[in-house]
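Session log. Operator J.P. requested a structure for one protein chain; no other inputs attached. Running the standard single-chain path with C-alpha cell output.
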Amino acid sequence: MTTAGDIMHRGAQWIPSHETLDRAAQLMRELGVGALPISDPNERLCGILTDRDIVVGCVAMGHDPSKVTAGEMAQGTPRWIDARADISEVLREMKEHQIRRLPVIENKRLVGMISEADLARSLSETEVGHWAESVYAISGAPKTR
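Structure written below.
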C-alpha cells in the first residue's frame, strides 16, 4: 500500500499566521516552493498561502505585503491528510476539494506536502490525467476528455 508519507515532499515548513506576506514570499523563495501551510499560535493548520494569493489577494489589490499577515489571507477550512493515509484517500481528498497541494500531518505535526509533482512521480499517466481532470474542472461544467 502506497501512503501519503511515501509520496510527500519532506521538509515542508509552516508560516506562522502572524508573519507578513513579504516574509512569506522570502521563505517561499528560500525553500523553492509556491505554497506554505499557515499555522496558528498552537502550530495547528489554519490555511495555506500561495504565491498567487500574495500577488492577486494583496499586491494587485494595492495592499502592502509588509503589513498584511498570512493569517489575514487564510480562508475556508484547511484540508490535510494523515501520513498513513492510502494514496486513494489522498486523491479523493484532492479531487473532492479541487486542491493541488495537500499538507501531510503525523502526530499533529506537519511532516510534508503533496503537490502535483509528487503525484506525477508516483502515479501512472492515466491516474494523473484523471486526477488533473477532476481538480481543474470548473464546478458544475461538463468535464471534457
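Operator note: Residues 35 and 50 are 4 Å apart (CA to CA).
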